[in-house]
């Protein structure tokens, strides 16, 4: 799992995002749908050109869940258990989509935080989000 320095990097970046979950989340979804259009099959109810209100509301829910994960880095499995059930058993999202979302997330962070988002922070966030994705996809088996 994350070492002390990686945890500090994750927390430091989260402090910059906290309070702007809807905005970052909407941008994440828009980027995901634009760069990887195949991901939109899971969001047909958002329409071909999802309007900002829908993007903001779902984006906020996704980012708030990431915030919960930040607060529970040592206990992701328990903290994210209901969300893992949802994605595996109800939504049945193909796990191959998670690395796509992780990549888009990092691009959103880099484009906003610019030089503040160091290579070490990016490495820590990549590891952290991969840990979140592992938990969210492990109930498929
Ligand atoms: C719903 C988080 C990855 C598709 C949700 C919800 C949250 C969430 C918090 C709302 C749950 C609720 O209403 O109770 C996350 C996180 C992810 C992730 C933290 C990865 C780090 C993905 C991926 C896809 C996906 C990769 C597909 C490309 C969906 C869909 C819904 C959903 C279709 C339902 C949307 C709706 O009800 O309007 N997710 N998700 N998720 N997620 Fe994810």
UniProtKB/TrEMBL annotation:
Belongs to the globin family. GO terms for molecular function: haptoglobin binding; heme binding; metal ion binding; organic acid binding; oxygen binding; oxygen carrier activity; peroxidase activity. Pfam families: Globin (PF00042). The keyword Kinase does not apply. GO terms for biological process: hydrogen peroxide catabolic process. It comes from the Eukaryota. Keywords: Heme, Iron, Metal-binding, Oxygen transport, Transport. GO terms for cellular component: blood microparticle; haptoglobin-hemoglobin complex; hemoglobin complex. Residues 1-141 form the Globin domain. PANTHER family: HEMOGLOBIN FAMILY MEMBER (PTHR11442), HEMOGLOBIN SUBUNIT MU (PTHR11442:SF8). It comes from Phyllostomus discolor. This is Hemoglobin subunit mu.
């Amino acid at each position: 799992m994350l070492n002390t320095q990686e945890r500090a990097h994750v927390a430091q970046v989260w402090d910059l995002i906290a309070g702007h979950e809807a905005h970052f989340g909407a941008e994440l979804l828009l980027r995901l749908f634009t760069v990887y259009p195949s991901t939109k099959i899971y969001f047909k109810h958002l329409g071909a050109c999802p309007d900002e209100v829908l993007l903001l509301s779902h984006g906020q829910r996704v980012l708030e869940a990431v915030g919960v994960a930040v607060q529970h880095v040592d206990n992701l499995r328990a903290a994210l258990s209901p969300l893992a059930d949802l994605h595996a058993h109800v939504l049945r999202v193909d796990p191959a989509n998670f690395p796509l979302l992780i990549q888009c997330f990092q691009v959103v962070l880099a484009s906003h935080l610019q030089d503040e988002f160091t290579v070490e922070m990016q490495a820590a966030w990549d590891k952290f989000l991969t840990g979140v994705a592992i938990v969210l996809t492990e109930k498929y088996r």
